[in-house]
Each structure stands twice: as structure tokens, then as C-alpha cells.
Write a structure and sequence with these properties.
With 252 residues, the protein is an alpha/beta fold. The protein has helices spanning 27-38, 50-63, 76-90, 112-136, 159-179, 205-213, 220-231, and strands at residues 18-21, 42-47, 66-70, 95-98, 141-146, 184-191, 241-244.
Amino acid sequence: MTDHAELHTSARPLNGRRAIITGGTTGIGRAIAVMLAGQGVSVYICGHDAGHLEDALTQIRVVGTGDGMVTELGDPDKVRAFFDAGEAYLGGFDITVINAAVAAGGLTQMDEDALRYAIAVNFTAYLLSAHHAAHRMTPIGDMVLIGSLSAHILGPSSTVYAGIKSGIAGFSEALRRELGPKGIRVSLVEPGKVGSNMQYPDVPDDKQRAMIAAEQMLRGEDIAAGVEFLLTQPTRSVIQQIVIVPRALEGE
């Protein structure tokens, strides 16, 4: 006789878990923070604008619990301070979402200061965040890195951003192999075009709304739904990489 319990695999619940999210005040990070809070996860977020932080925490506290701080992850010492504050608030954590990023243009379109800042936020802070998380998270834990489809769609104005995101993709895959035996699952999420202030000034708000309505651009909540899927997998499995793109956008 068939044991029907063996035909299905149980989802891992989110309720009661604790999460640190970099860049959780706007866009994808904010959507993930609100989604997790609504599922019973205590969250700790950061951003570099006090108004955005206050607004995000208001939404989070409508559905759950969370706190956060204004900081600048381009400063390596402040990455450590953010994880110190998050760990103290949460009393430990088992989810880390590494998401904070800034837009970047082509190499010859950027001055040296802008280039250094993009590397500091988009690459150095990613690796430092992963380093802090790997040493502090309680197993079985989940580390989710938000990459970008830009790693695979290469153009003359995307050299810096695409180069960094390609590096994050390789780092994520190697890190999954390093941390898996230690009880930490590592997943990479690569979104296509998502409505957010990262699209400024090329795609203003009205155009973003029109593209989302036409299903040619995603909302941050669409990426959050993908992250929820990753986090609720049975502990014996890990979704190594997930690519989420708009259904109706041609050429992506």
C-alpha cells in the first residue's frame, strides 16, 4: 500500500523566523520585508534615506514586526554595524537577504568616484554582508542574494553593473557549495525589469506604471513571491538560482 505522505514534500513555514535585509526600504527589498513580516517573520532592514525607512517600517508594522536603521553600506565599517544592530534587535537570525544596490552606467560614462561607490555598494558590501551572515546565522538558515538579469544581457552602457552582477552570480554558486554543509542555503534571484527608483531617469514613474499594467515590467512584490518560494523549500533542498522576468517583454 502506498504511503501518501511520501508522495508530497512539506513546505518549511516562515512564521517565527528572523530576517536581516539590506536595502529593505524601497523596491524589491521593501517588498520582501513586507512579505516576510506578513508571514510572521521579524525583520530588520536598512536604507540611506530616513523618510523611506519610516515609510517602510510603517508598512511592515501594519502586517507584522520589524525595525531598521539609516546607514551607508558603501562604508565597510557600517556593514558590520548594521549586522551588529540587526542581530541585537532580532536576538539572532536565520534569513539574510542581500539586496542593497545602486545603478551604474558604462565604464567610460562614470567618473572615478561614482565607479568606486558602485563597486563598494554593489560588490564589496554584498561580500561583506555574506561574510557577516555566514558567521552569525543559525542553521538551518537561508541566504538570498538579489542579482540581476543584467549579468546575462550585456550592452555598452551596462559594463559596470553587468560585470558586478556576473561576479555576484559566480560568488553565489560557489558560496552555496561552501555553506551548504554548514547548514546555510544560498540562493540567487535574478530579476528582469522591476518598477523602482533604480529605473530613474530612463523610465519615469508614469512609464513604469504603464509597463507594469501591460505586464512588460515586474513589481517588487513579484520578486518577493519568488523569494517566498525559495525560503519555504524543505531543508534538504536549495533552489540555487531563479530568474524572474516580465511575461510580455520581448527581447529579454
